Amino acid sequence: MWYSFIYFMYIYIRKGIDMDSIRLFVKRKRKELKLTQEDLALNAGVGLRFVRDLEQGKTTLRLDKVNDVLGLFGKEVGVIDTTRE
């Protein structure tokens, strides 16, 4: 099913995906909670390298891992249906 494809999809920087907002949000929330990048990685179940790449604005990241990090703050990135009926 296509839903499983989305789970492993990569985020590519394109018009409509604002990775800068995501990276700034993650960094701000991490600092508000006084977490190190290592703490965030451990709590989200991702690698330290991934957290660093996310906060530095890497242009390709795995969507499932981004959502693992965002989930700690009650947020997620997802597909939005933009078709009009």
From TrEMBL:
Coiled coil regions in record: none
Pfam families: HTH_3 (PF01381)
Span of domain HTH cro/C1-type: 26-80
SUPFAM superfamilies cross-referenced by the UniProt entry: lambda repressor-like DNA-binding domains
Entries under CDD domains matching the protein: HTH_XRE
GO molecular function: DNA binding
UniProt xrefs under Gene3D superfamilies: lambda repressor-like DNA-binding domains (1.10.260.40)
Xref: InterPro entries: Cro/C1-type_HTH, Lambda_DNA-bd_dom_sf, Tscrpt_reg_HipB-like
UniProt cross-references to NCBIfam families, sorted A to Z: couple_hipB
Name this protein carries in UniProt: HTH cro/C1-type domain-containing protein
